[in-house]
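User: For documentation purposes, I need each entry recorded in a consistent format: the amino acid sequence on its own, followed directly by the corresponding structure tokens. There are two entries in this batch. Please keep commentary to a minimum and don't merge the entries.

Assistant: Recorded as requested. Entry 1:
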Amino acid sequence: EIFHVGLIDQEKAKKTPVKGLLGTEEFFQTTYLDAFNIVLRALKGVSSSTFYSFCDQYKIPEKKLAEILNVHPRTMKKYELEDKPLDPSLGEHLLKLQSLFQKGKDAFGSLENFEFWLKQPFWKQKVKPYDLLETSGGVDIVSDEIQRYLEGYPV
């Protein structure tokens, strides 16, 4: 069986065995948003507080996350002060990153292990997963690589 992604909420989440993960069988409670629901949430408006919550939860400096999102930290402060929702493309990118980091943390057992993996070159490549996070499509590629890892393929 493979790791289920795309579940919308806790009620629909399932515990799914993952075979071959670090040589053991582990179970994860999946609550990742699928692409469709991420876009819908982004179009409705993502609060700037999501940005700051992400920084706190995953211990990423605000400046670093802003850099990944291709936005100036002062712009994020402006969104916060004006209590203005993020632009849909920025909100989508942030939600994808949030889902990716949760998936990575679950897949690799800890945030530290996931961050280490992000900084290593892909299997037989020179590019590192971290290098791709600046685009929404890059986040998708990294998520796909984690999925391959969970299915037992070398990444």
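Entry 2:
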Amino acid sequence: VLNHAGNPGYALTYPLAEAAFSERSGPPAWKQLPSWTVLATADKAAGTDIVRSMAERAGATITEVEGSHVIMISQPDLVTEVIEKVGLLRRDMQQKKELERYEARFKRIEQKVSALADALSSNNPELATAIRTAWQLPARSLAFRNAQHQREGDD
């Protein structure tokens, strides 16, 4: 073990800053973010009931596993599986957010195109019709491609 000067022989414990005890840390992340817990049913170190209580308070999705406090060592494959599933869920959640943003943007553009066509309709009805048709064609094509993709995914 090296000390603060890099010399071998002993280690020092440095005092914590006073701010660690007096300043607020801010809002807890678990109140705003989804949480998951792998709950070891025979946890005698932290206590299964205490861990369950904290997980429930956080609104966590709980996966109960038979084992002790160090479940990640006794059942690493199961813990890895839960972590991978959480990763996939988070990816899906992110994609859904991006889709919602895209759809909102698409809707705003659609409103602007419609307003433009409405403004043009009194002076040039053919151009207004052409603009509406041109706007709808890509949307129909996209809907068709999405439906085709969904059908292929079901196979």
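Summary note for entry 2:
The mean pLDDT is 80.
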